[in-house]
What we know:
Chain B: This is RNA polymerase sigma-70 factor (ECF subfamily). By secondary structure, chain A is of the alpha+beta class. Chain A has helices at about 10-15, 20-40, 90-100, and strands at about 45-50, 55-60, 65, 105-110, 115. In chain A, strands 3-2-4 form a three-stranded antiparallel beta sheet, with helices on one face. A two-stranded antiparallel sheet of chain A has the order 1-5. In chain A, a hairpin with a 5-residue loop joins β2 (about 55-60) and β3. Chain B has about 425 residues and is mainly α. Chain B folds into four domains: about 5-100, no CATH class; about 100-225, no CATH class; about 230-345, no CATH class; about 360-418, no CATH class.
Amino acid sequence: MLYAMLCYDSEDVVCAWSQEKNDAVMADLGAVQQRLAAQGRLGPVARLMPTTAATTIRKGREAMVIDGPFAETKEQLLGFFIVDCASLDEAIETAKELGDACGSGGSFEVRPVMLFNPVAPTL
Amino acid sequence: MTDRAWIDAALTAARPQAVSALLRYFRDLDAAEEAFQDACLRALRTWPENGPPRDPVAWLIFVGRNAAFDARRRVSRQAPMPDEELISDREDAEAAMVERLDDADYRDGVLRLLFICCHPDLPAPQQIALALRIVSGLTVAEIARAFLVGESAMEQRITRAKAKVAAADVPFEAPGPVERAERLGAVLLMIYLLFNEGYSASSGEAPLRAPLCEEAIRLGRLLLRLFPAEPEAMGLVALMLLQHARAAARFDEAGEIVLLDQQDRTRWNGPLISEGINLIGKAVRHRRPGPYQAQAAIAATHARAVRAEDTDWAEIDLLYGLLERLQPSPVVTLNRAVAVSKLKGPRAALEMIAPLEERLAGYFYFFGVKGALHMELGEEAPAREAFGRAIALARTAAEAAHIRSHLDRLQGAEERRA
């Protein structure tokens, strides 16, 4: 069974990290990832940009574009897509297409990826 | 187990919100700072043992407020202080406080705290120093180091600024939309000045002053999280990210300035650039252009060019035209002239800047640009004259050295001919 491990933390605190602290955390995480990759268990890994870079598309007949991250508590995270887009406008259009295909309500949060390691070849 | 680096980062992150809430409570800046300081000391004692609270900001506000009460009680009745172990993050009182302080309160509180530092009677350096002390929580020694002045001079500067701010009365009521927009504009400008204070450093000073740029970016992001739909806030953060992304390429090993078209673009910070480009894309969708957005869009156009010769100068010319309309200034026209020289040649650019000379007679870059344009046309005498005036106006050794390297090239060309 594949499991998605979703990382939650206080962005205020992470933004206040010194470069050294950030590098140390990334190195520690890197060590765990290497172990998982060696065991052939690691899929794609992504670090997202801060929520200030996020845009949310509220699904519906007239999709609504809202600045900022998804902030409702009535809906839950059910899945995600990683799509290569030339611009934010294209990303928003793509999210709308995906939203139309889902049909139901809910939202897509569009957040640029800061760091991406594609799937380890052994998986 | 909570490590010290995490606690320090958490306290720094919580400071703007916690101090602004305490200020709202005590209506006195010194009292609010003192209460926050007390709360931090308690956090350093109890968090390593008990682990961090679920909501550090609420914990600090709650504990800070109580510590201030205790201090007053101690003065009046010499009663013993309660054990801080008893203050747990699961207490109902704290949860109630979190509920009372909703996002809108935090938002206007933090904006107010930043706005206090932007008092119009305070010269820009004092505004920035005050914000670094009050909002960012840097020590006087750290601020003095970044401003390259002595600690006692900085202490005086901050004390004087605080006195002026205390005398001014910024109302505590939630601001109306017009007032909020005005406050936001003043605060954005102060953050921009803070960034420039760090960015305009010469190479020797750059390592000392880079933290100013990072702090400006942190405050900008904080503001953007509080006001997520403000295109000019997006523009400012995008501009700072895009400028800061080039930091490593701006000076060579000898400490000399490397101009944009000469920079090693592989040394630019890719993630910061993509974040900046994304943010300006977000801002533009609002169709409410402003000076920060225009400048960020110019920086983004430069950042998109893999090589200097790929730069889309027509786009940059257009964007400077927009900036001239939004914020007319001879400096903007001077910058536009550089784009024009790439599009239509140095002669057209010289014609464009000729009317600016009177107003920019004391401006280093004007004569630097003028000299470079004449040099491109092979007009040595006027080039030499302009460079001479630029050197006289240089503010840093690196600026003067940069112009001297142009003069050396002119000299070299002359000698080769002779």
